[in-house]
HxlR family transcriptional regulator (Sphingobium baderi), 262 residues
Amino acid sequence: MDTKNPTERYDVMRADCPARQILDRIADKWTVLVILALATGPLRFGRLKAKVEGVSQKMLTQTLRGLERDGMVDRAAYPTVPVTVEYALTPLGHSLVDAVVGLRRWSHAHIDKIDQARRRYDTGKSENANL
Amino acid sequence: MDTKNPTERYDVMRADCPARQILDRIADKWTVLVILALATGPLRFGRLKAKVEGVSQKMLTQTLRGLERDGMVDRAAYPTVPVTVEYALTPLGHSLVDAVVGLRRWSHAHIDKIDQARRRYDTGKSENANL
DNA sequence: CAGTATCCGCAAGGATACTG
DNA sequence: CAGTATCCTTGCGGATACTG
C-alpha cells in the first residue's frame, strides 16, 4: 500500500522536509475547496467566492495568491471596465484534483458513520460524568 | 471524473453541509500526519509524538481526541505502571488512509515543480517592483 | 508514561473602508 | 469587479506546571 517509504528521499514526518511544507499547504480547508471549485472550469473572483460558501474575500484572495505562487492556479486579468479576472487550474493544479476529490468522496461516503461515532462518544462521556 | 455531483444529497461547497464539517477536520495538517503515522500500525503516545515531528503534546492529544470521537482511532489503555496507552486506526480510519496517502504521494512527486514555480513567481514580483 | 490544566503570545481570519 | 489596506477580535497552539 506504500504507506512507509523508509528509503525515500523525502519523509513527510520530518519537520524540515519540503514535502511537509507542501502538505501543510494542501491540507488546508480553503485550499481544498478552491481546488474543487476550479476543477470543473475557470471562474471569476466573484463567482468563485459565491461558490465556496463561507469564505471571506480576504481568505479567498490569500488562498488564490498562495496557489498562484505554487504554480497551481493561473490568474488572467482582462482590461475590461470594470476589470475581469479569471482563475483557472494549471496542469499542476489539475494533477492535484484526483487527490482532493478522494477526500471529498470519502467525506460524503462516511458522513453517517461519523455521526454515529460522535453520538456514541458523546453519550459515553456524559454517562461517565454520572458515575 | 466526478468532480461536480449536482444531484448529490450533500454538497461540500455549502457551508452547512455535514460533508463540509468532515472535510474541515480531515483537511488539517496534524490530522493527516497522525493518520499517516498510524497507517503502518498502532503506536503509543510517546512514539507517535516522536514520529510526527514538530507536533506539541497538546495538539497531538487534541487531534487524537477528535479522531477518537469521529470513530477513526481507537484508544487502548493498559493498567501497567506507568500506564501504557496505544492508539490504532479503526476500520473507518483505515478507509481514509488511501486518500491521505494520495496527498502525500502528490506532495512528494511535485516538490521540484512547486519550488520552481515559487522562484519564478518571487523573481517576477521583485522585477515588477523595479518598474 | 500519558496525560490535564493554565497561562499567554501571536497570527489567522473577519469586518470595514477605500481604490484602479 | 476585484482587489488592497487597516483595524480588531478570536482562538490556535506553544510552554510550563502538575497528576494518576
Remarks:
- Residues 43 and 87 of chain A are 5 Å apart (CA to CA).
- Strands of chain A lie at 43-44, 73-78, 84-89.
- DSSP finds five helices and three strands in chain A.
- Residues 6-128 of chain A form a domain with the Arc Repressor Mutant, subunit A fold (CATH 1.10.10.10).
